[in-house]
Fold this sequence. Notes:
With about 350 residues, this protein is of the alpha/beta class. It contains ten helices and eight strands.
Amino acid sequence: MAVDPDNIQYTEEYYNSISISGTLKQRRRISSSGQISNANIPDDSEVGPNNIRYVNYLGKITKMTIDITSDIGDKSAVAAFNKKFPGSEPVLIDQEAKDNSDKLSATTQKALKNSNDACASAGSLGGLSDVLSDVGKELEEAAGSILGAVGEVAGVVNEAINAVGEAIAKVTELIAKAAGLIARLIAAGIGALAELIDTIINEASAFVENALNAVNDAVGEVAGAIADTVDAAVDAVGDAIGAAAGLIGDVVAAVAAGGCKETTAILTSLPAVPAGPAGAIQSKIKSNSPRQSRMLASDVDIQGNPRVRVVNFNIDKSLPFRDIQYKGVLTRMYYQNAADMNERFGIPEGLGSS
Length: 354
C-alpha cells in the first residue's frame, strides 16, 4: 500500500491496514521522562486503550504507547506525551533545551563583555604600578577562562541542537519519499532492494532518535538549574570587575576584543562558534590572524653567492615580521634584513611591522 504523505489520517484503522510493519509503520513508547524508544513497550492491556495513540513520528505512522507504568513522583507519561505531541506535528526538541541553549548563548555575550572589561581594568591597574599589573593580568586571565568555558558549552549545545533539527528534517523527508517506493518495490517482487532501502531508513531514524534523547537529556528540563547557575556566576564576575574598576577610580569601557590577548586567545581556540557578537568577533579575529609562519632568510648558497629565500624551518620568531599574503595565505613573514624584505615584498600600505 503506497503512502501519500500529504493525505495521511493517523488512526488505528489506517495503522492496522498497513501490513509492512517497520517499513511504513512503527511502534514506540514514551516514558514519563519524555524519552521515546522502541524498547520495553508494555502490552496494551497494561496501559489501557486511552494511552495508545497514533501519531506522525519521524515520517512514519507510529503506534505510540504512553507508558504510565514509568510514572514516578510528579513525572507523568501522559504529560510528557502532551508536551511532545501538542498538535498534528510533534515537538521533538524540548522547549527547555532550546531555552537553555539561548540562555547559554546570551551568557556567552555577558562573559565576552566581562572579559573585555577585565582587559580594560588590567590596563588601568598596570598603569598604576608594577605590583598591580600582576593583579590585572590575573583578572584578565580569570575572565578569559570563564569566557572560554561558557562559550565552548554554548557553542557546542547550539551546534548539537541545530544538527539534530536538520537531521530530523532530512530523515523525515527521506522517509516520506521512500515510503511509496518501498511499497511499490515489494509489490513488484523486488524485496531485496526494498529491504536495503528500509534498513538505511531505519538506521537513520535510530540515529536521530538517539540524538534527540541525548540532546533533550543533556540540556532539557533538568539542565535549567545549570544554565541559571552559570548565568548567575557570570553576573557575579561582572559585578566584581565593575567594583574593581570603581576602586581604581577609572571609568572602564568595553574595548575591542582584538586588543585583549587573553580574550583573543580564548575566542580563537574555541572548537565551536559561539552565537551573537562573540561569534562575530571570533570570526573576525580568525580571519585577521596569520595562518602560517615563514622566514625570509638572507644567506649564501654553497658557492658562497648571496641569496634571499623563504623558508618554513628554523624560523627565528625573535626577528621582526610583517603579516602579508604569501601564495594566497595570510602569512607571518619574519625577516633578517629589512632591505631584502622591502625589495621582495614591498611595503604594503596599512600593514605594520613589529
